[in-house]
Design a protein that fits this description.
By secondary structure, this protein is α/β, with parallel strands linked by helices. The chain is about 40% helix and about 20% strand. The chain binds S-adenosylmethionine (SAM). The site of S-adenosylmethionine (SAM) has 16 residues, from strand 2, strand 4 and helix 4.
């Protein structure tokens, strides 16, 4: 059984993708992809031997060693030009680590990025679109009480507004996501001491803006 988060990430993989899952850890996502015939084969990697060994052991248990190739190493450094990879999947890491991983020459071969970052999605959109990608798909989901955002990027060029980079060009129309952001702002605002006037002002401004965006969704 895999989590709903991993299932939703898997739903963005198509059988045309020649995929590497970087930071695979347990490799449960990759086992799911192969067992469900979404992919015939996949490369998985992790920088930590212990984490990769967990994946190797799960792959062996499922007798999928011929279809799921494991590599130990840092980010895209495990790839060479012999590997015909066109899609990178990275999930369960922070934006800084993800951007470090993408800062690699192999990226020129990559048409599609499936990313579930744990934080700072604005920074992720800003930096990945600068690398020559557009936001193709986005999803907000709650799994076991935790909030997640999945973003799929594809090669392309598009100018995004400040709001689209902040909330996501697709998520900006998602009422559930905007309500989550609104509740976060309200929670933070209630926590801030009254003498932090500028911070309170900024939060009030964002709250008003989010309420407007939410109203627009309902129209
Ligand atoms: C929290 S786990 C996420 C596992 C899985 N992708 C998921 O979404 O459930 C993050 C994994 O990324 C690996 N990792 C972190 N930085 C990495 C890097 N630069 N290159 C490869 N793997 C990395 C860690 O060792 C860890 O196993």
């Amino acid at each position: 059984m895999i989590s709903n988060r991993l299932k939703r990430i898997a739903s963005y993989v198509s059988n045309e993708d020649r995929l590497i899952d970087i930071g695979c850890d347990h490799a449960l996502l990759d086992i799911y992809l192969v067992k469900n015939k979404i992919l015939d084969k996949v490369i998985v990697s992790d920088v930590h031997e212990g984490a990769l060994n967990a994946g190797v052991s799960n792959i062996k248990k499922e007798k999928l060693s011929k279809k799921i190739e494991t590599r130990l190493g840092n980010g895209m450094e495990v790839l060479s030009d012999k590997d015909d990879i066109n899609t990178v999947l990275i999930s369960g890491m922070g934006t800084t680590t993800i951007l470090d991983i993408l800062n690699n020459n192999y990226l020129k071969n990559i048409n599609k990025l499936i990313i579930q970052s744990n934080n700072d999605h604005t920074e992720l959109r800003i930096e990945v679109t600068k690398l020559g990608y557009i936001v193709k798909d986005e999803e907000y989901l709650v799994d076991m009480g935790k909030n997640y955002i999945i973003i799929v990027f594809e090669k392309g060029n598009k100018k995004y507004t400040k709001d689209e980079l902040r909330y996501g060009p697709i998520l900006i129309k998602d009422k559930a996501y905007l309500n989550f952001e609104l509740n976060q702002c309200i929670k933070i605002k209630n926590f801030i001491p009254t003498n932090k006037v500028i911070l309170k002002f900024r939060l009030n401004k964002e709250i008003r803006h989010l309420k407007k965006l939410i109203k627009r969704c309902g129209e």
